[in-house]
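Dear colleague,

Thank you for sharing your sequence with our group. We've completed the structure prediction you requested, and as agreed, I am returning the results in plain text so they can be pasted directly into your records. Please verify that the sequence below matches your submission; if there's any discrepancy, let me know and we will rerun it promptly.
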Amino acid sequence: MAASDDDKSTDRIKDSAQQIWLAGLGAFAKMQQEGSKAFEALVKDGVGVQKRTQQAAEETLAQAQARMTGFANEFSNRAAGGWGKLENIFEDRVARALEKLGMPSAQEVAALQARVEALEAELKRRDGAAKPARAAARKTAPRKSADTASKPSQRHKSTGG
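Please find the predicted structure tokens below.
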């Protein structure tokens, strides 16, 4: 019985190996038939994965660009504020130095300019009122005779020598 059990066992192993071999050949044949379809499906899946990955990368890049733009704007605003403070400090120091030198401030110069303009306007107004009075005075003033106007002056004769 031992020999026949060994033979049955060997036969079962051979049958099992034969079935595994046939299953492998069947899978190989099926893959040859279905291979192009499977390859196309894999390519399609790969394209989908690539699109999703590219879209995620673009979104991440857009977020990074937005953050960098925000940082740049914040830095620019801070720098502008710093320059404004520096400018104010400089203007204050220049104003104090000019004051020590006795120079008038911008407000004092503006006030003087306004006074000069007001005085000029007053002079024009008075000059306009004085012109008719001068014209009236000329009409009433006595005229010089033609003899006195044509005679050369004494001073002129003595210097001509």
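Summary note from our side: Confidence is low (pLDDT under 50) at residues 155-161.

Kind regards,
the structure core
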